[in-house]
């Protein structure tokens, strides 16, 4: 069990002084965790927001802190559970590869896994395993709690602290990303934390904080539209993703089964690999000269279904449509790219296929659960769908030809039906 004494503190620009225990320090000081200093939280966004150079390191520290504060506010949480949730929060993003979510392109394409699979693997099999054991905890349990998949009976709230519509991860990144980008979208996470309770085993928000909850969810929506799905940031991210795939096809530079190899991957080491890859070097040169792809077609649909993400998540479908547009435009297939990010386009709902849009609201006077947030607030009800953003990108010189081709093809059957219904 972790000691109750703090070893020291970190000065965080967002939340101020964050204390940590000797056991948490042992985790932070590992090579596995220190690599997060060299993995940017919003890789690609710096082409739009120069201040967006913060990393997974400070985000992970922030999630540890928020998760711990949220847990301490729940009367049902034991001291040991609070320590476990802090540790899980600290490690929740440990599996990210270089350039954060962009690296999912390689993990998914070549291995059919994602960073959460790597998170569990690094906690259970890497150097962290013994450190967690020495602290008195079970690596297997921490690995499942870190991705919100503990699934302990009658304790849904344990998973929901790190994986739900209103969780510690989102509370940190909405505030932190807004701070570093200067986008200006923030939320009063402390009022949310101090009004949350575990009711009927579910993490629930007090009816007295409805307006705060609405503001939080709206801030998330605006963050997705202005930061995460900004067309220029996405252009840079698409280019990095393509460079990663090209370089890996040319020379596989890591295996997820080799953890020592995996933890050597960060934004700097992989950028060097890409620069020295024959198939990726041109893309990197374009990025270094800010010759970015241009968005020539955009279709934004708010719906109850995962339209764009469902249609274009299949590589063969996306490739087929890209080829069709390229032929119509008379350009190379390599010059047409459909934006279908692996991070689901769901700011109006959840960030995971396993995470339902659910915001239980309880009556502060009676401690009874009311209907779901959507029944209590018209604003929350309106956010129960999916924001699908479909874009087509091409090079600057092909902009007009591809724009016309994309408009012709994607406005005709069957694509119009698939996109707009």
Would you give an account of this structure?
This protein has 421 residues and is an alpha+beta fold. It has 2 domains: 8-231 and 361-372, Orthogonal Bundle (Hypothetical protein af1432); 293-349 and 385-421, Alpha-Beta Plaits (2-Layer Sandwich), CATH 3.30.70. It has helices at residues 22-28, 31-34, 56-72, 79-91, 104-111, 115-125, 128-134, 139-146, 156-160, 168-181, 189-194, 210-228, 231-250, 259-262, 267-275, 281-288, 307-312, 315-329, 373-376, 378-382, 399-410, 415-420, and strands at residues 8-12, 16-20, 196-199, 202-206, 294-303, 336-339, 360-362, 369-372, 386-394. The strands form 3 sheets. The protein has a 4-stranded mixed β-sheet with strand order 3-4-7-8. Strand 1 (8-12) and strand 2 form a beta hairpin. Helix 3 (56-72) packs across helix 10. The termini are far apart.
In short:
The protein folds into 2 domains: 8-231 and 361-372, Hypothetical protein af1432, CATH 1.10.3210; 293-349 and 385-421, Alpha-Beta Plaits (2-Layer Sandwich), CATH 3.30.70. 49% of the residues lie in helices and 12% in strands.
What's the CATH topology label of the largest domain? Hypothetical protein af1432
CATH top level assignment of the largest domain: Mainly Alpha
Radius of gyration: 22 Å
Q: Given the helix and strand composition, which structural class is it? A: alpha+beta
- Reported CATH architecture of the largest domain: Orthogonal Bundle
Protein name: HD domain-containing protein
Organism: Odinarchaeota yellowstonii (strain LCB_4)
GO biological process, one term: dGTP catabolic process
InterPro entries: dGTPase-like (IPR050135), HD/PDEase_dom (IPR003607), HD_assoc_2 (IPR045509), HD_domain (IPR006674)
């Amino acid at each position: 069990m972790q000691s109750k004494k703090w070893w020291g503190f970190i000065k965080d620009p967002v939340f101020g002084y964050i204390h940590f225990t000797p056991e948490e320090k042992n985790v932070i000081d590992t090579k596995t965790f220190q690599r997060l200093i060299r993995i940017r939280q919003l890789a690609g966004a710096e082409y739009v927001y120069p201040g967006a150079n913060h990393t997974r390191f400070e985000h992970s520290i922030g999630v540890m802190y928020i998760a711990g504060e949220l847990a301490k506010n729940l009367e049902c949480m034991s001291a040991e559970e609070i320590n476990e949730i802090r540790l899980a929060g600290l490690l929740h993003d440990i599996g990210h590869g270089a350039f954060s979510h962009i690296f999912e392109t390689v993990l998914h394409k070549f291995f059919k896994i994602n960073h959460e699979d790597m998170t569990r693997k690094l906690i259970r099999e890497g150097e962290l395993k013994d450190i967690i054991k020495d602290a008195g905890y079970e690596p297997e349990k921490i690995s499942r709690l870190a991705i919100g998949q503990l699934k302990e009976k009658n304790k849904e709230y344990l998973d929901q602290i790190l994986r739900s519509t209103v969780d510690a991860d989102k509370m940190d990144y909405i505030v932190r990303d807004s701070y570093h980008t200067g986008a200006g979208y923030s939320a009063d996470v402390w009022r949310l934390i101090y009004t949350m309770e575990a009711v009927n085993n579910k993490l629930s928000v007090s009816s007295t904080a409805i307006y705060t909850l609405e503001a939080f969810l709206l801030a998330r929506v605006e963050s997705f539209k202005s930061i995460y799905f900004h067309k220029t940031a996405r252009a840079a991210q698409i280019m990095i993703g393509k460079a990663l795939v090209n370089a890996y096809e040319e020379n596989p530079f890591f295996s997820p089964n080799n953890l020592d190899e995996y933890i050597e991957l960060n934004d700097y080491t992989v950028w060097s690999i890409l620069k020295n890859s024959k198939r990726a070097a041109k893309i990197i040169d374009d990025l270094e000269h800010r010759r970015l792809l241009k968005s020539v077609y955009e279709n934004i649909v708010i719906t109850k279904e995962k339209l764009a993400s469902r249609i274009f998540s299949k590589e063969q479908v996306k490739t087929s449509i890209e080829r069709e547009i390229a032929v119509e435009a008379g350009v190379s297939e390599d010059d047409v790219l459909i934006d279908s990010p692996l991070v689901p386009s769901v700011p109006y709902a959840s960030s995971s296929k396993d995470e339902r849009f659910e915001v239980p609201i309880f009556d502060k006077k009676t401690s009874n659960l009311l209907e779901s947030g959507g029944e209590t607030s018209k604003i929350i009800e309106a956010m129960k769908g999916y924001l699908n953003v479909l874009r087509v990108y091409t090079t600057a010189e092909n902009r007009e030809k591809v724009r016309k081709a994309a408009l012709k093809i994607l406005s005709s059957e069957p694509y119009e039906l698939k996109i707009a219904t």
